[in-house]
Design goal:
Order of helices and strands: EHEH
Helix content: 40-55%
Distance between the termini: 25 Å
Strand order of the largest sheet: 1-2
Structural class: alpha+beta
Number of strands: 2
Strand content: 25-35%
Length: about 45
Amino acid sequence: MQKTTQIVIVEDDRDLCAGLCKALKEESRSIVSCGNLKDAREQIF
């Protein structure tokens, strides 16, 4: 069984965020994108 890693990307530029999510996407990774720090903190906690 493979362990899943969660990556939280905080980026307010939608195009850049989409590119980062696409570049980092793998089966063993869960990518969460947030447009600001408040949303990122809610995702982490």
